[in-house]
Amino acid sequence: MADEKKKKVDTKKVEEKKETSKKSTTKKAEESKTVKKETTTPKTKAPAKKVAPKKEVKKSIDEELVATATVKYARISSRKVKIVADLIRGKNVDEALAILQFTQKAGSEILIKLLNSAIANAENNNQMTHSKLYVAEIYSNQGPTLKRIRPAAKGSAVRIRKRTSHTTIVLKERN
Predict the structure, then answer these.
(1) Alpha-carbon dihedral sign for residues 109, 113, 118, 123
(2) Do 33 and 110 have their domain in common?
(3) Residue 99 belongs to domain with CATH number
């Protein structure tokens, strides 16, 4: 008796599913007809073409070409690099190179290589002229610190922090 009730319930569920699927397919067909009607133009009754927006290739007047170079995980503290970076911020690239060559600081060696890389990027990738280039931005941020341990008196240990830095130079052209 229980088996018969289950069979009846199961057959009712199957019939309900068939009816709902029929309704949903008819609704989808009706929706597609309405969509087709909306997309056709009244004169030709051909489906309207969807036009993708064109991407602008040319730069606008407000956007300036920039050339960047970045060194990451340099084994020098960002504090030491910032001292030298402040000297060349806003200067022409030739003047900045001269300042870096005659500055006796540890950060100047890294910044010379980085500035030469940024100049090469500007000339080769962006077709910028060397004589118009200047250091628009230069910043040095702290990277991950390598932690080492050194033995100290009475069996204790002292932590040694070997700091790293991430430095970026952005060059622009003067008008």
Answers:
(1) positive
(2) no
(3) 3.90.470.10
Q: Are residues 43 and 72 in the same domain?
A: no
Residue 5, both tokens: 């009730």
Residues 85 and 34 both lie in one domain: no
Print pLDDT tens along the chain (175 aa): 556 655 666 666 667 666 666 555 555 555 555 544 444 455 555 555 565 555 444 454 556 789 999 999 999 999 999 999 999 999 999 999 999 999 999 999 999 999 999 999 999 999 999 999 999 999 999 999 999 999 999 999 999 999 999 999 999 999 8
| DSSP state at residue 45 | -
**Integer Cα distance of 133 and 175 in angstroms:** 10
**Cα gap 54→106, rounded to integer Å:** 49
- Same domain membership, residue 139 and residue 79: yes
C-beta neighbour count of 114 within 10 angstroms: 22
The type of residue at 168 is T
- Taking CA atoms, 59 is separated from 43, 64, 66, 69, in Å, by 40, 8, 12, 21
* Whether the Cβ atoms of residue 85 and residue 138 lie closer than 8 Å to each other: yes
